[in-house]
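As a representative case, the lines below give one protein's residues and fold tokens.
***
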Amino acid sequence: MNRQFKYRGQAVTSKNIAFINQLIAENPNDSRRVLSKKLCLAWNWVQPNGALRDMVCRGLMLELDRAGYIKLPAKKFSPHNPFIHRKKPAAIKIDQTPIDTALANIQPLEFRQVRRTCSEKLFNSLIEHYHYLGYCHAVGEQLKYIIFSQQTPIACFGWSSAPRHIGCRDRFIGWSANSRKKRIHLIAYNTRFLILPWVRVSHLASHILAQIARILSHDWQRVYNHPIYYLETFVDKERFKGSCYKAANWIYLGDTTGRGKNDQHNKPNRSIKAVFGYPLTKDFRKYLCGGLR
């Protein structure tokens, strides 16, 4: 290789390239999909839940092919991609009777994890039609919650894999680049938080935040076969003050740069977000930096 090749921030060596070329040469009748799976098995390239990192591997091989380092076999078929023409979630009618009361009067609350269940469409619909950002299909690991009071939905929570690079967060944790790469999956990012507009209950938001912190890691372990040790979120400073996060003892760490992950000009191109974090254990730094297992 005349120049260093990187994929997702990781160097790909000439030895790696030679191995892939040998794999292709020894399996001339294999499709790109089959080659990718064989490469994952050869490199033990798996997710924390044991599933092969097939899509990431295919992306690497495609980039190497485009750069001229390997020659992939011709495509045998182009599978349907449901994300290209994804329809927005349809509106689902629910009871919108105003709820204006004290917190004690709507308890106990039920936190229902609805990802990959028949109730997931309801979550998507509520976010699309009542959250100011609307619904966006998250990538990577993700969980979705609907909070019910006496079988009536009152709030929604969306969680996903954490963004890779957040300067103030990484400094707060004390992460090296290598530790972040190995353990970023141990953080969950709060992508959406919605209390339905006809629900007006004092202290409800901070109460829900406190409760979700007690159950999220257990659910993550059950679904993805690993726990989480830290929560984070962004708060749009042009719209909100982050009062409920502060009331639930989340820690304000600083602000984003406003440039986004694909910035090419080092200039802000979106609103500045406040970054809040919430450790789930006192030893979170040891887990995230590799001191504990």
